[in-house]
Design a protein that fits this description.
Layout: E1 2-3, E2 6-7, E3 12-14, H1 24-32, E4 36-40, H2 46-59, E5 66-72, H3 78-87, E6 92-96, H4 102-107, E7 113-118, H5 121-130, E8 135-138, H6 152-162, E9 167-170, H7 176-184, E10 189-192, H8 194-197, H9 206-214, E11 220-224, E12 230-234, H10 237-243, H11 266-274, H12 298-309
Parallel strand pairs: 3-10, 4-5, 5-6, 6-7, 7-8, 8-9, 9-10
Antiparallel strand pairs: 1-2, 11-12
Helix pairs in contact: 1-2, 2-3, 7-12
The structure holds flavin mononucleotide.
């Protein structure tokens, strides 16, 4: 597929996943399979973000793939991270967890493709009007911070029909059959998050990956993140405490969010999950993570999904 002058051999975006879940290793592996590998730039030092982009670039040998970054609009360093991504000339900036109008002017004319994540037709149309090169439409069944209660299956088709730019469907694409179902709604490609956490190249702790493999249907619940947005997470005692709004105020704070409820620290909880801490980690996951039953390499994932997304529109 094409997004402007950018060719992408396989229309699969590996969703950006903070905090240090999607880094250079995973992103390069995805780009080398011809998809869009994405480094998450949220809540990591700017210099580390820059280094990861450079490391991924060095390891990408397939010209048919692309390197993107994902930056949360809700992050306090959003503008600085965008600047780093532009300086490093990534192929694509994907931004979610909020909507920024300012970024369109900053990216315009740089050649970097801008791909906002939206969850409604209204926002999709605004993004198109402001100059988005493509959009990711993400439902409330997805991993990460959410912009709607509706599942991707219920919002994607209407948005595809309402805009003329390429659309990637996100949320609930876990199996090749899910990708087929999403493509049938008219999207140009898919974005997957959970499936790539349970990949050999993902840099989270093995316990995080095993949790995905062992999760049963119904084990994912919604919490209100301290970022002020809902998010899906795997049930645990700690998650229940967050849901019950127990006072879990962090001892220290680096003001990583523009606005934070300070009821608990989502960054700390995600870092702990990354390190496999069952007691205080919050394991973000898409609602359909229970469908994952093995940890695969990125190549194995692409081999399974490729023919489902390579369809002539
Ligand atoms: C652990 C985890 C962390 C995530 N972090 C981010 C993030 O930093 N920014 C973002 O836009 N989306 C984030 N997401 C969402 C993914 O990029 C992707 O859109 C979503 O997981 C798709 O739903 P799926 O998991 O059902 O495939 C995250 C998802 C997971 C599972």
């Amino acid at each position: 597929m094409k997004i402007g002058d950018l060719n992408i051999d396989v229309p699969i975006i590996q969703g950006g996943m903070a905090i240090r879940a999607s880094m250079a290793r995973l992103a390069a592996a995805v780009a080398n399979e011809g998809g869009v590998g994405v480094i998450a730039g949220t809540a990591i030092p700017l210099e580390e973000f820059r280094e990861e982009i450079r490391k991924a670039r060095k390891n990408i040998v397939n010209k048919g793939g692309a390197l993107g970054v994902n930056i949360m609009v809700a992050a306090s360093t959003f503008a600085e991270s965008v600047k780093v991504a532009l300086e490093e000339k990534v192929d694509m900036i994907i931004c979610g967890a909020g909507f920024s109008r300012d970024i369109f002017e900053k990216v315009k004319g740089t050649g970097v493709k801008l791909v906002p994540i939206v969850s409604s037709l209204k926002l999709a149309k605004i993004a198109e009007k402001l100059g988005a090169d493509a959009i990711v439409v993400e439902g409330g069944n997805a991993g990460g911070h959410l912009g709607t209660d509706k599942d991707s299956w219920d919002i994607v088709e209407e948005i595809v029909k309402g805009v003329s730019i390429p659309v990637f469907g996100a949320g609930g694409v876990i199996t090749p059959a899910d990708a087929e179902r999403m493509m049938a709604l008219g999207v140009d490609g898919v974005q997957m998050g959970s499936r790539f956490i349970a990949s050999k190249e993902c840099e989270v702790n093995e316990e995080f990956k095993e949790k995905y493999v062992n999760t049963k249907e119904g084990d994912v619940v919604q919490i209100m993140s301290s970022a002020g947005l809902p998010a899906n997470a795997i049930k645990s005692e700690y998650v229940s405490r967050v849901i019950n709004e127990e006072k879990l105020t962090p001892k220290s704070c680096i003001s990583c969010l523009k606005k934070c409820s300070r009821k608990f620290c989502v960054k700390d909880s995600l870092v702990k999950a990354h390190n496999g801490n069952e007691t205080e980690g919050i394991f973000f996951a898409g609602k359909d993570v229970w469908k994952i039953n093995e940890i695969l390499s990125v190549k194995e994932i692409f081999d399974m999904f490729k023919d489902k997304v390579l369809i002539n529109k």
